[in-house]
Amino acid sequence: MKKAPLLLLAVLFWACTATKDTEQKALPMDALAERYVKTILKLGQYDSDIVDAYYGPEEWKPTGEPADTLPAKEFLAELQLIQENLQEQQTDKSSDLEKEDWPCFRSRYWLLSPKLK
């Protein structure tokens, strides 16, 4: 019976240290951009003011029918994930043009979030 607290302590210690090894690194910028475009295209199914026209890859367009109500929490969570990954990006190796685009891309979350609340 005295071994149970020690075993529990060992398991808790292992669980706390194991999460450090499995933490996700920031997604690459290309993956973030693709994820953002796909999210905005899905959001455009609910609000036609968000997407005027789209000339990108056809396979990025949403294929399913939109839900009856806007899943705002899901969109906010996805945009928040993109925003957090943007904050973790290393910009020191970016070109001057990419560095100019960063503030605009980072501000997209704040522009869209009021529409979802």
Structure explained in plain terms:
The chain has four helices and no strands. By secondary structure, it is an all-alpha fold. It is globular. The longest helix has 21 residues, at 96-116. It is 62% helix and 0% strand.
Low-confidence region ranges:
3-12, 18-23
Number of helices: 4
Shape: globular
Assembly type of the chains comes to single chain
User: Average pLDDT value?
Assistant: 78
Structural class: mainly alpha
User: What is the radius of gyration computed over CA atoms, rounded to a whole number of angstroms?
Assistant: 20 Å
Strand content: under 5%
Helical content class: 55-70%
Count of DSSP E strands? 0
- Measured between the Cα atoms of the first and last residue, the distance is 52 Å
Sheet of most strands:
none
Strand and helix layout:
Layout: H1 3-22, H2 29-44, H3 72-87, H4 96-116
Helix pairs in contact: 2-3, 3-4
Task: State the main characteristics.
117 residues, mainly alpha, disordered N terminus
Would you kindly provide a brief summary of this structure?
With 117 residues, the chain is an all-alpha fold. The protein is built from 4 helices and no strands.
